[in-house]
Amino acid sequence: MKCFMMFPGQGSQFEGMLSEVSAEDKQLVERLTGVHMTDTNEQYRSTIGIQLGLLLKQVSEARKILAEGFTPSNVAGHSIGSFSAAVIAGSLSFEDAIKLVHLRSRLMAEAYPDSYGMAAVVGLLKNELVPIVEAATTSEEPVYLSNENAPQQFTISGHINALNRVIKSASQSGASKAILLAVPTPSHCPLMSGVRDALALALEQVTIKAPNCLYFMNHTGLGTNLAKDVKKDLIEGVASPVKWDIMTKIALENRMDLAVDIGPGETLTKLIQAQDDSLKVINVSKLGVDDALYVLNKERKKY
């Protein structure tokens, strides 16, 4: 059974999302980073809390699925989810992922502690949105096109004032939705080049192995089986747009039997079903791990 396992990024976090995570895993995060995971809304207002929480939830729950004999053929993580994908693909140890995500999130928060963030724009094509973004940016208040999630679904990153200018213009130009996101940093754009450079130095001290399945890269949208490509993706991803639209198209071309959205949330489920509504998608966040395993076992009997 060919399975495509997906890991979402920031914006999907919620209070209580670590309820099925073991105390041992939470203690591991605290031992390696000094961060006590309270799993509260207050903690998830910080970049560090969000990113560590997502990594912890995703790896913990995906490992429970792997323990039952389910091995993904393809993995893809959106933004911070790429670190979870690398762990599940066997490229990166959980311990190293925790330390790298802590470094990444801390540097992101320190680089832009306030007045910056991200927004989503839905209902415009790329060639319609790009001129709006270019018109809204200034040297003091920059804004960039960042994630490319679907042909008419994008995120933008930058100064809050510039984001609001894009939101206003995009809405006037026919966007069906243009809203600020619950992401306190301007991710996936050149504003994060300093964080990218620091991650490159940190990853020189980390062992990255060849993935045991196809790993989709955020910054190119392409799949790889090479350790050097995974390493480059973990570095470049923070300052480059996420090519999620390309990633899911190629995964579907690989004729997956089903997809597993580890969650939290249903964003990636909706995105892939918009491309192929016939694909069976098991959403772990919606079902819970035990019920997701029950459905997976039923599906496995078909193959």
UniProtKB/TrEMBL annotation:
Keywords: Acyltransferase, Transferase
Active-site residue list: S79, H188
EC number per UniProt: 2.3.1.39
InterPro entries per record: Ac_transferase_dom_sf, Acyl_transferase_dom, Acyl_Trfase/lysoPLipase, Mal-CoA-ACP_Trans/PKS_FabD, Malonyl_CoA-ACP_transAc, Malonyl_transacylase_ACP-bd
Key word Transferase present: yes
GO BP annotations listed: fatty acid biosynthetic process
Domain of life, per lineage: Bacteria
Top enzyme category: transferase
Reactions catalysed: holo-[ACP] + malonyl-CoA = malonyl-[ACP] + CoA
Family classification: Belongs to the fabD family.
Protein name, as recorded: Malonyl CoA-acyl carrier protein transacylase
